[in-house]
Amino acid sequence: MLDERQLLIALRKRDPDAFTQLFDSYSDKIYRLALGLLGNETEAEGVVQDAFIRLLERLDQFEGRSKLATWLYRVAYNLCMDRLRQRRPTLALADEADEDETLPTPVVFYDWRNAPERWMDADELTKEMDRAIASLPAKLKAVFILREIEGVSTQETAQILAISVSAAKVRLHRARLTLRERLAAYVIECV
Questions:
Q1: Mean pLDDT for the chain?
Q2: Which of 76, 78, 79, 149 is most buried (most C-beta within 10 Å)?
């Protein structure tokens, strides 16, 4: 297994084993990000292919100011946003809210400490969580997927999305609040 520097050198020499290592390490992660943002398996597979092709085509432009993985996520994220813009040209207008807008105020309250354990393992709750994540606005969904599902650091998430670290934190907080609200309404309905 090559470290990052060795991997980059090998990729620039067009070593097929290096590409295989990179693909094996990140293809599933890129797919989950794309599927989460696009909600379409075929499009997500296309993003994975396009991201790795673009990486190979533009490898000489990579300056090494970030991790190779961060750059690859950024390429995949941009490809997803391009597909979303093509799908819904008005998405950018609806999704351009200021970072200073007030946080959502909870309407439905549920004390999660008292939640029956059966909810923590229930397939229905998992499906509801997936639906809630899918319904998030793209900018919140991207941060949530990168931070909470993929485990990418806040700093790298900010780099991938080309936003400040504080904006990444605010978006993650908003995503969590929104999800908590939606799931609280669902759990109260079912109890």
A1: 83
A2: 76
Which residues have CB under 8 Å from 191's CB, separation 6+?
116
Task: State the pTM of this model.
Answer: 0.74
Does residue 109 carry a pLDDT above 60?
no
Tell me how crowded residue 56 is: count the other CB atoms within 10 A of its CB: 12
Give the per-residue SS3 of 119-186: HHHCHHHHHHHHHHHHHCCHHHHHHHHHHHHCCCCHHHHHHHHCCCHHHHHHHHHHHHHHHHHHHHHH
Residue 178 in any domain: the answer is: yes
Per-residue pLDDT at 190: 62
Give the residue numbers spanning the domain of 116.
Answer: 107-190
Give the model's pLDDT for residue 121.
53
Please determine, for residue 7, whether its predicted confidence score (pLDDT) is greater than 50: yes
Radius of gyration of the chain (CA): 19
| Residue 143 belongs to some domain of the structure | yes
